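Progress report, Aim 2. The chain analyzed during this reporting quarter is listed below.
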Amino acid sequence: MNLLYPFNRSLFFTLFFNSVLAVLWWLPWVFNAGQVQNIDITLFGTLQILEIKPFAALLIQFFIGVLMFFITSSISFSKQISTTSYLQFTLMILLGVLWVKSHIFGNQSIAAVFFIFSIIELLKLNFFSRNTLKIFNSLILIITASFFQIDFIFLIPLFIAGIFILEGLKIKSMVLVIFTLIIAVLTILGYAYVFDSVDVIKNYYFQVLNFRFFINWHIIDIQHIIFYILIIFTIISLYLYFRQKNNFKLQTKKIISFLIVIWLYLTFYMLFTETACKIFALVYLPVTSFLLMLNFVNYKSKTNNIIFLIFLFLLTLTYILQFFIFNI
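Predicted structure tokens for the chain:
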């Protein structure tokens, strides 16, 4: 039985399967409607912008997730492989349904949107092209993400690493990075002065100096189990990718290497930090789905079909269990 074929090649099956997933996304909240509270959207941690009712927060998050997954799968990430496939979008929706931590709209959702568009800008880098505007846009987007969720400031080193991987070592680019960071700092200081928020913004950014790792592996809830399943199968997919990576073009291999660096960085951050799973869930899913697809896009392989069947079985089991162990 070729289970992977319809997931990769059939538009009708993709539309039907994702319609079912869209219904399943809402089921946990139908049975646990009281879990969601009003959501406050803030700037720099304390400056409230607006308050959103529970149902509106879920609805906004649902559409943000679908739009983000569509953009990354159809516009950006899909261009990095030579095979047209519907699988990546389906994997994103599937993982989004299962990982309830990605369902709650909040500051982390707004930051995630800026983060994803920052990645998309970086993926356009090429050694032989002029990349000044792309680098500037990418860093401005990730710094803007930190206005809403301070944890995203820790991802700035990722983007500097991405410049090295995708473009190579160019002094002009490093000068641009420093120049952009200086502009960002001056802009934030100017905002703080004009709106009399110096202490608020200072306390917001200085909290990174008190950052502490918090290993919470002893808390085994269903969402942690899903996270561990994703780690295991992504590692399997990467192992199979490295066995056949010579089949990919050089620029494609550079992009995949950058996405692997992002995945490793986020994975370790989420393993060792108490709240990171909820904060980075929405940005972790597109990257993880792409790395999984590197293996599952080969729908003719019997081994891949068996691995995918086991993968689906475990995910289905965790979805059923979350109705008994619903813990966000």
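The CA atoms of residues 92 and 226 lie 14 Å apart. The chain is about 70% helix and 5% strand. These observations will guide the mutagenesis work planned for the next reporting period.
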